[in-house]
Amino acid sequence: MMAYEQLKLDNQLCFRLYTATRLTIGAYHPYLNPLGITYPQYLVMLVLWEQNKQPVCDIAKSLLLDTNTVTPLLQRMEKMGLVKRTQGKEDARQRIVSLTKKGMEMQEQAKHIPECLTADIIKKANEEEEYMGMIPMLDKLIEGLKQPNK
Amino acid sequence: MMAYEQLKLDNQLCFRLYTATRLTIGAYHPYLNPLGITYPQYLVMLVLWEQNKQPVCDIAKSLLLDTNTVTPLLQRMEKMGLVKRTQGKEDARQRIVSLTKKGMEMQEQAKHIPECLTADIIKKANEEEEYMGMIPMLDKLIEGLKQPNK
DNA sequence: TATTTTTGCATCGTGAACGATATAATTTGA
DNA sequence: TCAAATTATATCGTTCACGATGCAAAAATA
Asked: What is the mean pLDDT of chain B?
Protein backbone atom coordinates (compact mmCIF):
# COMPACT_ATOMS: atom_id res chain seq x y z
CA MET A 1 0.00 0.00 0.00
CA MET A 2 1.43 3.33 -1.09
CA ALA A 3 0.66 6.64 0.53
CA TYR A 4 -0.19 9.55 -1.69
CA GLU A 5 2.61 12.06 -1.43
CA GLN A 6 0.30 14.82 -0.20
CA LEU A 7 -1.03 12.60 2.58
CA LYS A 8 2.36 12.10 4.18
CA LEU A 9 2.62 13.48 7.68
CA ASP A 10 5.76 15.31 6.73
CA ASN A 11 3.87 17.41 4.19
CA GLN A 12 1.27 18.66 6.63
CA LEU A 13 1.49 22.26 7.77
CA CYS A 14 -1.33 21.78 10.24
CA PHE A 15 0.40 18.91 11.98
CA ARG A 16 3.39 21.16 12.52
CA LEU A 17 1.24 23.93 13.90
CA TYR A 18 -0.50 21.47 16.18
CA THR A 19 2.75 19.97 17.43
CA ALA A 20 4.53 23.28 17.82
CA THR A 21 1.60 24.55 19.85
CA ARG A 22 1.53 21.54 22.16
CA LEU A 23 5.24 21.71 22.77
CA THR A 24 5.26 25.45 23.27
CA ILE A 25 2.43 25.22 25.77
CA GLY A 26 4.47 22.50 27.46
CA ALA A 27 7.35 24.94 27.74
CA TYR A 28 5.12 27.16 29.89
CA HIS A 29 4.63 24.47 32.50
CA PRO A 30 7.71 25.25 34.61
CA TYR A 31 6.41 28.78 35.01
CA LEU A 32 2.67 28.16 35.27
CA ASN A 33 2.78 25.22 37.65
CA PRO A 34 4.14 27.36 40.50
CA LEU A 35 1.22 29.73 39.93
CA GLY A 36 -1.20 26.83 39.91
CA ILE A 37 -2.78 27.74 36.58
CA THR A 38 -2.99 26.13 33.15
CA TYR A 39 -2.10 27.75 29.85
CA PRO A 40 -5.69 28.62 28.88
CA GLN A 41 -6.18 30.07 32.36
CA TYR A 42 -3.01 32.11 31.86
CA LEU A 43 -4.51 33.49 28.66
CA VAL A 44 -7.61 34.57 30.56
CA MET A 45 -5.38 36.26 33.11
CA LEU A 46 -3.55 38.13 30.34
CA VAL A 47 -6.88 39.38 29.04
CA LEU A 48 -8.03 40.52 32.48
CA TRP A 49 -4.73 42.13 33.42
CA GLU A 50 -4.97 44.16 30.27
CA GLN A 51 -8.58 45.12 30.98
CA ASN A 52 -10.28 44.21 34.22
CA LYS A 53 -14.05 43.74 34.56
CA GLN A 54 -15.20 42.29 31.30
CA PRO A 55 -18.28 40.30 30.39
CA VAL A 56 -17.70 36.68 29.44
CA CYS A 57 -18.40 37.36 25.78
CA ASP A 58 -15.62 39.93 25.53
CA ILE A 59 -13.10 37.55 27.04
CA ALA A 60 -14.27 34.86 24.66
CA LYS A 61 -13.95 37.25 21.75
CA SER A 62 -10.40 38.22 22.71
CA LEU A 63 -9.39 34.56 22.84
CA LEU A 64 -11.46 33.58 19.79
CA LEU A 65 -13.18 30.94 21.88
CA ASP A 66 -16.85 30.25 22.51
CA THR A 67 -18.53 30.77 25.84
CA ASN A 68 -19.05 27.05 26.23
CA THR A 69 -15.28 26.81 26.60
CA VAL A 70 -14.75 30.00 28.55
CA THR A 71 -17.56 29.64 31.08
CA PRO A 72 -16.28 26.42 32.69
CA LEU A 73 -12.77 27.85 32.60
CA LEU A 74 -13.94 30.90 34.53
CA GLN A 75 -15.91 28.75 36.94
CA ARG A 76 -12.74 26.85 37.79
CA MET A 77 -10.82 30.10 38.14
CA GLU A 78 -13.50 31.48 40.42
CA LYS A 79 -13.26 28.36 42.58
CA MET A 80 -9.51 28.97 42.76
CA GLY A 81 -10.15 32.51 43.95
CA LEU A 82 -8.58 34.27 40.97
CA VAL A 83 -11.71 35.96 39.63
CA LYS A 84 -15.24 36.70 40.67
CA ARG A 85 -18.29 36.85 38.46
CA THR A 86 -21.05 39.35 39.12
CA GLN A 87 -24.33 40.04 37.41
CA GLY A 88 -24.23 42.80 34.79
CA LYS A 89 -26.17 45.94 35.70
CA GLU A 90 -26.99 47.43 32.32
CA ASP A 91 -27.45 44.08 30.63
CA ALA A 92 -28.77 41.48 33.03
CA ARG A 93 -27.68 38.66 30.75
CA GLN A 94 -24.04 39.53 31.16
CA ARG A 95 -21.73 38.16 33.82
CA ILE A 96 -18.97 40.62 34.55
CA VAL A 97 -15.67 38.94 35.35
CA SER A 98 -13.24 40.78 37.59
CA LEU A 99 -9.94 39.96 39.20
CA THR A 100 -9.71 39.26 42.90
CA LYS A 101 -6.82 40.58 44.95
CA LYS A 102 -5.11 37.24 44.47
CA GLY A 103 -5.69 37.50 40.73
CA MET A 104 -4.18 40.97 40.57
CA GLU A 105 -1.17 40.04 42.64
CA MET A 106 -0.40 37.16 40.33
CA GLN A 107 0.54 39.66 37.66
CA GLU A 108 3.71 40.52 39.54
CA GLN A 109 4.73 36.87 39.68
CA ALA A 110 3.92 36.42 36.01
CA LYS A 111 5.61 39.45 34.56
CA HIS A 112 8.84 37.65 33.74
CA ILE A 113 7.23 34.65 32.08
CA PRO A 114 7.33 35.99 28.50
CA GLU A 115 11.05 36.70 28.60
CA CYS A 116 11.77 33.39 30.34
CA LEU A 117 9.91 31.56 27.68
CA THR A 118 11.61 33.38 24.86
CA ALA A 119 14.95 32.62 26.46
CA ASP A 120 14.07 28.94 26.81
CA ILE A 121 13.02 28.68 23.20
CA ILE A 122 16.06 30.53 21.94
CA LYS A 123 18.29 28.29 24.00
CA LYS A 124 16.71 25.14 22.70
CA ALA A 125 15.95 26.07 19.14
CA ASN A 126 18.14 29.11 18.39
CA GLU A 127 17.44 32.37 16.67
CA GLU A 128 14.72 34.62 17.89
CA GLU A 129 14.13 36.48 14.66
CA GLU A 130 12.68 33.48 12.93
CA TYR A 131 9.90 32.92 15.42
CA MET A 132 9.00 36.53 15.44
CA GLY A 133 9.01 36.28 11.67
CA MET A 134 6.10 33.87 11.86
CA ILE A 135 3.85 36.39 13.54
CA PRO A 136 2.56 38.17 10.43
CA MET A 137 1.86 34.86 8.75
CA LEU A 138 0.04 33.48 11.76
CA ASP A 139 -1.96 36.68 12.01
CA LYS A 140 -2.99 36.46 8.40
CA LEU A 141 -3.91 32.83 8.84
CA ILE A 142 -5.98 33.60 11.92
CA GLU A 143 -7.61 36.58 10.30
CA GLY A 144 -8.63 34.49 7.32
CA LEU A 145 -9.99 31.61 9.34
CA LYS A 146 -11.65 33.25 12.27
CA GLN A 147 -14.99 34.09 10.68
CA PRO A 148 -17.23 31.75 12.71
CA ASN A 149 -16.38 33.38 16.04
CA LYS A 150 -16.76 36.89 14.61
CA MET B 1 -4.09 48.65 36.86
CA MET B 2 -1.62 48.65 34.02
CA ALA B 3 -0.55 45.58 32.08
CA TYR B 4 3.11 45.04 31.48
CA GLU B 5 3.75 45.42 27.79
CA GLN B 6 5.16 41.91 27.45
CA LEU B 7 2.06 40.41 29.07
CA LYS B 8 -0.31 41.77 26.45
CA LEU B 9 -2.10 39.11 24.48
CA ASP B 10 -1.06 40.78 21.28
CA ASN B 11 2.60 40.17 22.04
CA GLN B 12 2.25 36.44 22.54
CA LEU B 13 3.61 34.15 19.85
CA CYS B 14 2.21 31.08 21.57
CA PHE B 15 -1.31 32.46 21.63
CA ARG B 16 -1.09 32.90 17.88
CA LEU B 17 0.17 29.37 17.41
CA TYR B 18 -2.58 28.07 19.63
CA THR B 19 -5.29 30.02 17.82
CA ALA B 20 -3.98 29.29 14.34
CA THR B 21 -3.95 25.60 15.21
CA ARG B 22 -7.50 25.57 16.52
CA LEU B 23 -8.81 27.42 13.50
CA THR B 24 -6.86 25.32 11.03
CA ILE B 25 -8.12 22.12 12.60
CA GLY B 26 -11.57 23.65 12.36
CA ALA B 27 -11.02 24.11 8.64
CA TYR B 28 -10.65 20.33 8.33
CA HIS B 29 -14.14 19.68 9.68
CA PRO B 30 -16.01 19.93 6.38
CA TYR B 31 -13.77 17.18 5.03
CA LEU B 32 -13.38 14.98 8.09
CA ASN B 33 -17.00 14.98 9.21
CA PRO B 34 -18.14 13.03 6.14
CA LEU B 35 -15.48 10.44 6.97
CA GLY B 36 -16.66 10.33 10.55
CA ILE B 37 -13.22 10.98 12.04
CA THR B 38 -11.62 13.73 14.10
CA TYR B 39 -8.41 15.55 13.31
CA PRO B 40 -6.23 13.50 15.68
CA GLN B 41 -7.76 10.35 14.22
CA TYR B 42 -6.94 11.67 10.75
CA LEU B 43 -3.33 12.06 11.84
CA VAL B 44 -3.27 8.43 12.96
CA MET B 45 -4.67 7.43 9.58
CA LEU B 46 -1.93 9.41 7.82
CA VAL B 47 0.66 7.54 9.84
CA LEU B 48 -0.87 4.15 9.07
CA TRP B 49 -1.43 4.87 5.38
CA GLU B 50 2.23 5.69 5.15
CA GLN B 51 3.24 2.55 7.02
CA ASN B 52 0.71 -0.09 7.96
CA LYS B 53 1.16 -2.42 10.94
CA GLN B 54 2.96 -0.44 13.57
CA PRO B 55 3.18 -0.85 17.32
CA VAL B 56 1.48 1.82 19.39
CA CYS B 57 4.79 3.32 20.46
CA ASP B 58 5.84 4.00 16.87
CA ILE B 59 2.59 5.77 16.10
CA ALA B 60 2.99 7.80 19.25
CA LYS B 61 6.55 8.67 18.30
CA SER B 62 5.51 9.83 14.83
CA LEU B 63 2.89 12.12 16.32
CA LEU B 64 5.06 13.20 19.26
CA LEU B 65 2.33 12.06 21.62
CA ASP B 66 2.39 9.69 24.58
CA THR B 67 0.69 6.34 24.61
CA ASN B 68 -1.80 7.53 27.20
CA THR B 69 -3.18 9.78 24.49
CA VAL B 70 -2.80 7.38 21.60
CA THR B 71 -4.15 4.24 23.24
CA PRO B 72 -7.68 5.58 23.86
CA LEU B 73 -7.63 7.15 20.42
CA LEU B 74 -6.85 3.76 18.85
CA GLN B 75 -9.46 2.06 21.00
CA ARG B 76 -12.09 4.39 19.62
CA MET B 77 -10.82 3.84 16.10
CA GLU B 78 -10.96 0.09 16.60
CA LYS B 79 -14.55 0.38 17.78
CA MET B 80 -15.27 2.33 14.58
CA GLY B 81 -13.79 -0.49 12.52
CA LEU B 82 -10.89 1.52 11.09
CA VAL B 83 -8.03 -0.41 12.69
CA LYS B 84 -7.41 -3.61 14.55
CA ARG B 85 -4.91 -4.21 17.31
CA THR B 86 -3.13 -7.54 17.64
CA GLN B 87 -0.59 -8.86 20.09
CA GLY B 88 3.03 -8.47 19.00
CA LYS B 89 4.82 -11.73 18.20
CA GLU B 90 8.45 -10.85 18.77
CA ASP B 91 7.76 -8.49 21.64
CA ALA B 92 4.74 -9.56 23.65
CA ARG B 93 4.38 -6.14 25.17
CA GLN B 94 3.65 -4.53 21.83
CA ARG B 95 0.24 -4.10 20.29
CA ILE B 96 0.49 -4.01 16.53
CA VAL B 97 -2.00 -1.65 14.92
CA SER B 98 -3.12 -2.38 11.38
CA LEU B 99 -5.68 -0.93 9.03
CA THR B 100 -8.90 -2.76 8.31
CA LYS B 101 -10.34 -2.87 4.81
CA LYS B 102 -12.50 0.08 5.75
CA GLY B 103 -9.45 1.93 7.01
CA MET B 104 -7.55 1.33 3.80
CA GLU B 105 -10.45 2.37 1.61
CA MET B 106 -10.74 5.63 3.43
CA GLN B 107 -7.43 6.70 1.90
CA GLU B 108 -9.12 7.10 -1.47
CA GLN B 109 -11.74 9.38 0.00
CA ALA B 110 -9.11 11.37 1.86
CA LYS B 111 -6.58 11.88 -0.88
CA HIS B 112 -7.96 15.26 -1.95
CA ILE B 113 -8.17 16.71 1.54
CA PRO B 114 -4.72 18.36 1.59
CA GLU B 115 -5.29 20.27 -1.63
CA CYS B 116 -8.83 21.20 -0.57
CA LEU B 117 -7.52 22.58 2.65
CA THR B 118 -4.75 24.52 0.99
CA ALA B 119 -7.28 25.97 -1.43
CA ASP B 120 -9.59 26.97 1.41
CA ILE B 121 -6.82 28.68 3.29
CA ILE B 122 -5.52 30.48 0.23
CA LYS B 123 -9.02 31.65 -0.58
CA LYS B 124 -9.61 32.98 2.91
CA ALA B 125 -6.19 34.26 3.84
CA ASN B 126 -4.32 34.64 0.54
CA GLU B 127 -0.83 33.69 -0.52
CA GLU B 128 0.37 30.17 -0.24
CA GLU B 129 4.07 30.92 -0.08
CA GLU B 130 3.86 32.53 3.32
CA TYR B 131 2.36 29.52 5.04
CA MET B 132 4.83 27.21 3.47
CA GLY B 133 7.46 29.68 4.61
CA MET B 134 6.58 28.90 8.20
CA ILE B 135 7.49 25.25 7.85
CA PRO B 136 11.23 25.54 8.51
CA MET B 137 10.61 27.72 11.54
CA LEU B 138 7.98 25.39 12.94
CA ASP B 139 10.30 22.46 12.36
CA LYS B 140 13.10 24.15 14.21
CA LEU B 141 10.75 25.05 17.03
CA ILE B 142 9.49 21.48 17.26
CA GLU B 143 12.98 20.05 17.06
CA GLY B 144 14.14 22.25 19.87
CA LEU B 145 11.22 21.54 22.15
CA LYS B 146 10.50 17.91 21.59
CA GLN B 147 13.06 16.41 23.94
CA PRO B 148 10.71 14.87 26.51
CA ASN B 149 9.03 12.55 24.00
CA LYS B 150 12.35 11.61 22.44
C1' DT C 1 21.38 -16.49 36.98
C1' DA C 2 19.07 -13.21 39.86
C1' DT C 3 17.95 -8.56 40.44
C1' DT C 4 17.22 -4.08 38.80
C1' DT C 5 15.91 -0.98 35.29
C1' DT C 6 13.62 0.10 31.28
C1' DT C 7 10.05 -0.30 27.94
C1' DG C 8 5.25 -0.82 26.01
C1' DC C 9 0.80 -0.42 26.99
C1' DA C 10 -3.08 0.61 29.74
C1' DT C 11 -6.17 3.05 33.22
C1' DC C 12 -7.66 7.03 35.87
C1' DG C 13 -8.53 11.85 36.75
C1' DT C 14 -8.59 16.69 35.27
C1' DG C 15 -8.97 20.40 32.18
C1' DA C 16 -9.72 22.07 27.92
C1' DA C 17 -12.35 22.51 23.01
C1' DC C 18 -16.48 22.26 20.83
C1' DG C 19 -21.08 20.70 18.85
C1' DA C 20 -25.73 20.66 20.42
C1' DT C 21 -29.09 22.42 23.14
C1' DA C 22 -31.51 25.31 26.76
C1' DT C 23 -32.97 29.59 29.03
C1' DA C 24 -33.57 34.15 29.97
C1' DA C 25 -32.82 38.95 28.66
C1' DT C 26 -32.58 42.17 24.99
C1' DT C 27 -33.41 43.87 20.45
C1' DT C 28 -35.84 44.01 16.08
C1' DG C 29 -39.55 44.85 13.31
C1' DA C 30 -44.22 43.88 11.79
C1' DT D 1 -47.05 46.83 21.38
C1' DC D 2 -46.19 42.20 20.86
C1' DA D 3 -44.23 38.28 18.53
C1' DA D 4 -39.88 36.86 16.42
C1' DA D 5 -35.06 36.95 16.18
C1' DT D 6 -30.82 37.68 18.44
C1' DT D 7 -27.63 37.72 22.22
C1' DA D 8 -25.27 36.24 26.66
C1' DT D 9 -24.56 32.61 29.36
C1' DA D 10 -24.81 27.99 30.83
C1' DT D 11 -25.13 22.74 30.65
C1' DC D 12 -24.23 18.27 28.60
C1' DG D 13 -21.70 14.80 26.04
C1' DT D 14 -17.60 13.39 23.48
C1' DT D 15 -12.83 13.55 22.38
C1' DC D 16 -8.37 14.98 23.16
C1' DA D 17 -3.89 16.02 25.96
C1' DC D 18 -1.39 14.80 29.67
C1' DG D 19 0.26 13.92 34.58
C1' DA D 20 0.26 10.06 37.66
C1' DT D 21 0.25 5.41 38.34
C1' DG D 22 0.19 0.27 37.51
C1' DC D 23 1.66 -4.01 35.36
C1' DA D 24 3.90 -7.27 32.69
C1' DA D 25 7.57 -8.21 29.37
C1' DA D 26 12.10 -7.34 27.98
C1' DA D 27 16.74 -5.61 28.57
C1' DA D 28 20.59 -4.43 31.35
C1' DT D 29 23.63 -5.37 34.90
C1' DA D 30 25.45 -7.18 39.12
From this structure: 91
Show which positions of strand D are touched by protein (CB under 7 A): 7-13, 15-21, 24-27
- Identity of the residue in A4, A14, A63 whose CB atom sits nearest the CB atom of B111: A4
- Nucleotide whose C1' lies closest to the alpha carbon of residue B149: D18
Distance separating alpha carbons of residues A138 and B3, to the nearest angstrom: 24
Q: ∠ CA(A136), CA(A141), CA(A146), 5° rounding?
A: 125
Of the candidates A31, A94, A125, the residue with the CA atom closest to the CA atom of residue A86 = A94
Residue percentage of chain B with pLDDT more than 90: 75
Phi, psi of B83 (to 5 degrees): -135, 165
SS3 B99: strand
**B62 is near strand C: CB distance < 7 Å:** no
Reported as a single tens digit per residue, the pLDDT across B98-127 is: 999 999 999 999 999 999 999 998 888 766
Question: Residues A8, A14, A18, CA angle at the centre, nearest 5°?
Answer: 115
pTM, rounded to two decimals: 0.93
> How far, CA to CA in Å, does A116 sit from each of A81, A111, A146, B126?
26, 10, 30, 34
Average pLDDT over residues B57-75: 98
Shortest CA gap B79–chain A (Å): 23
Q: How many residues does chain B have?
A: 150
Q: Which residues of A touch B49 (CB under 8 A)?
A: 1, 3-4, 7
Residue A146 is predicted with a pLDDT of 80
- Chain A contact for B115, CB < 8 A? yes
